[in-house]
Amino acid sequence: MKTIDNYNFKNKKALVRVDFNVPLDNDFKIIDDTRIRAAIPTLKKILNDGGSVIIMSHFGRPKNLPELKFSLIHAVPLVSQLLGRPVQFAKDCIGAATRNMAANLKPGEVLLLENVRFHAEETKGSESFAKELASLGDVFVNDAFGAAHRAHASTTTIAKFFPHDKMFGYLMAHELESIEKLLKLYKKPFTAILGGAKVSGKIAIIANLMDRIDNLIIGGGMAYTFVKAMGGNVGSSLVEEDRIQTAVQIIEDAEKKGVKIFIPTDTLVADAFSNDAARKVCDIKNIPEGWLGLDIGPATEKEFAAVIETSATILWNGPMGVFEMSNFEHGTRAVADAVVNATKSGAYSLIGGGDSVAAINKYKLTDQVSCVSTGGGAMLEGLEGQVLPGVRAVDESVEKIIR
Ligand code: AMP
User: Fold this and answer.
1) pTM beyond cutoff 0.70
2) Atom number, ligand 1, closest to the C-alpha of residue 197
3) CA nearest ligand 1 atom 17, residue
4) Quick check: is 35 catalytic?
5) How far apart are CA 53 and CA 208, in angstroms?
6) CA 101 from chain center: how many Å?
7) Residue 197: CB within 6 Å of ligand 1?
């Protein structure tokens, strides 16, 4: 893999694509700075080598026009604090004034460009726009894993203007290595834990993992479609009627391939979709009419934990219940604890995509698992075995790792 480790940035202007797409509150304060912190080691390596840094990123989904709530100016104080030096800000990512700022950048200096998505050309992957961005730096570093599944100008097209001087930053390398650990270097027993709202979003990932995994744990809203497919009564729980046949196929496929499939046996049901609703534990195949399953039950928690704690490789994608509500988060917390225990015993654990990342952060267990992905959609597509355009553009050989 071409990474920044094998490159000396002395006197070079490094154009670094990062993913600073962080949530803001109404006062433009950053609510969760994980993605910005994750890019800092790459920026520091370049600066410590004696290079300068030009940072580019997208931010939100503006309608191709500047808007204050989508301005990267809100990231300046934090980036400056984390790097321990001033950060210059270019009010546009292209144009004469920006070219001038980039040209005058000295070793050790940092320039943050305004949101690349203020130009429609970005998401179109425009060559001329990418060329303008490319003209600002001597070397291109892609550290934006969260945008790696987008064939946009600053993530993908731009790489062609650096035929030799293009490479991955540390965050990107770390995330790609975690995909490699799951799809190529996995140790058995390998357990995939899938939850979240719907079966439909998880079909491709199940298909790509079926030949690799030993155990498939199904929780969250998607479990009720499986229970119904097996003839159970799920009351008013979330069910995707048009995916019942898919669930049957997944169960049959797992049987054929010797994959053990674990579907909840008991569930915590509520009489309304509300934290204050009446609730009780019941058999998941016999949910009374008018009640809906919002979490896995205590027996299921134990069954799932036993499987997880004896696994050597673990992927977790999607919560076990409506964990945003405190009365229905117990199952998700139990799975999080089991993943942490397995990791302590030497398992490799990746929390990738979906709201399980939010859950592991909520429980402050981020440092106790092997990798928490910063790229929701990108991680999902990587694990589905899809081409990641931002990765291919920098290093085609990496595809052999992840496919
Ligand atoms: P995903 O983005 O697919 O990981 O889905 C995450 C969402 O699924 C979260 O917002 C959860 O609240 C929701 N979810 C989990 N379990 C259930 C359930 N039993 N019924 C309805 N929604 C659920």
Assistant:
1) yes
2) 8
3) 221
4) yes
5) 38
6) 33
7) yes
Tell me, yes or no, if the two domains 4-168 and 176-383 fold the same way: yes
Between the CA of 356 and the centroid of ligand 1 the distance, in Å, is: 10
Cβ 355 under 6 angstroms from ligand 1? yes
Which pLDDT tens digits describe the chain residue by residue (403 residues)? 889 999 999 999 999 999 999 999 999 999 889 899 999 999 999 999 999 999 999 999 999 789 999 999 999 999 999 999 999 999 999 999 999 999 999 999 999 999 999 999 999 999 999 999 999 999 999 999 999 999 999 999 999 999 999 999 999 999 999 999 999 999 999 999 999 998 988 999 999 999 999 999 999 999 999 999 999 999 999 999 999 999 999 999 999 999 999 999 999 999 999 999 999 999 999 999 999 999 999 999 999 999 999 999 999 999 999 999 999 999 999 999 999 999 999 999 999 877 898 899 999 999 999 999 988 899 999 999 998 999 999 998 887 766 6
CA distance 122 to 308: 42
Reading the block at residue 395, the tokens are 């290093």
Cβ proximity of 56 and 89 under 8 Å: no
Please state the separation of Cα 176 from the chain's center in Å.
Answer: 11
Query: What is the CA(262)–ligand 1 centre distance, in A?
Result: 18
Domain at 4-168, CATH homologous superfamily? Phosphoglycerate kinase, N-terminal domain (3.40.50.1260)
Of ligand 1's atoms, which has the minimum distance to the CA of residue 354? Answer: 4
What CATH topology corresponds to 176-383? Rossmann fold (3.40.50)
**How far does residue 331's CA lie from ligand 1's centre (Å)?**
12
Tell me whether residue 354 is one of the annotated catalytic residues: yes
For the chain, which residues make up each domain, given as ranges?
4-168, 176-383
